[in-house]
Amino acid sequence: MTATSGLIGGLLAAAIAERPNWLNFALAVIGLVIAHAANNMTNDYFDLAGGVDTNEYARAQYAPHPILAGLISERGLLAAILIFNLVDAGIMIYLALQSGWQILVFAALGLFISVFYVAPPIKLKHHGLGEPGVFLVWGPLMIGGTYTVTAGELPPAGVWLACIPYALVVTTVLMGKHIDKREADGAKGIHTIPVLIGEKPALALNMALMIAYYAAVAGLLLTGTVGIWVGLVVLAVPRLVRVIRIYLKPRPAEPPENYPVWPLWYVAAAFYHNKLAGGLFVLGLVLNLLLPIHL
After folding, report:
1. Please, what sign has the CA dihedral across residues 86, 113, 173, 60?
2. Would residue 140 count as lying in a domain?
3. How far apart are CA 102 and CA 161, in angstroms?
4. Res. 82: pLDDT tops 70
5. Count of beta carbons in the 10 Å neighbourhood of residue 104
6. Tell me: the pLDDT tens digits for 106-120?
7. CATH number, domain at 147?
8. How many domains, in total, are found in the chain?
9. How far is the C-alpha of 287 from the C-alpha of 227, rounded, in Å?
């Protein structure tokens, strides 16, 4: 998902800028992927330190926790976080020298949300702010930031609007995960949106966000913000229907045979939709470069 946001930003820049800087674009995408990896490690560290991650908690059940699984020591994980952030800082400084100080704002906001997603004293995730934070990071910050370093200028209004659709479907993935972990999170005092509003309203909200993705794309098409090829996202509608059918049924008591990420359920369906919806959006932007047609 992180690379997809970067690709969207670069492709939007390529459609507008006279001379896109592809080295800056490549460095930005690499930097985003490194930042996402650092974010995952940071979350694992602070969730373990805060008593959230245990062998019984969902995080350790669907994938190995680096410390709980004995893959690395606590000090080793901290060292890895530091190294990843130092590499990212080097990329950030280079891009700021190339594209202007505004890149520091994108990076600082992204780092703030990334670190304080679970880190004290703010703990955004614990106060129902994790989902809005993800929307901002994977939309305006990643897409807008990559556009800025590629085009050499801040995004115009149309690009900011074009950040919305993919940010929505990334948010549905996190919302799906939080629905899956609602009971466990509630017992630990982690007030994600599904904990705050309940499972059925959260399921309804996530389905609405998935549908809103298509409404947002339609708005971009009808206003001529993007070319007609982005309309290829309609090919993901049958998958959306399959995902909604999953959301309308109770979670099974036992995992299906060979199901790899149990006890997660709704997040897998959301990601299944995200992959195709996001991929078609990117394909549409590529085709817009090759054969630009606007309504």
Report:
1. positive
2. yes
3. 19
4. yes
5. 13
6. 999 999 998 898 888
7. 1.10.600
8. 1
9. 9
The CA-CA-CA angle for residues 203, 208, 213, to 5°, reads 130
Q: Which domain holds residue 263?
A: 2-290
The rounded distance, in Å, linking the Cα atoms of 19 and 140 is: 22
Query: Which residue in 86, 89, 87, 96 sits closest to 24, CA to CA?
Result: 96
- Measured CA to CA, the distance from residue 60 to residue 58 in angstroms comes to 5
Specify the 3-state DSSP secondary structure of 191: strand
> Left if phi > 0, otherwise alpha if psi is -120 to 50, otherwise beta: which for 105?
alpha
| b/e code 260-281 from CB counts within 10 Å (16+ = b) | ebeebbbbbbbbbbbbbbbbbb
User: pTM of the full predicted structure?
Assistant: 0.92
Residue 56 CA to residue 245 CA, distance in Å, equals 29
Residue count of the chain: 295
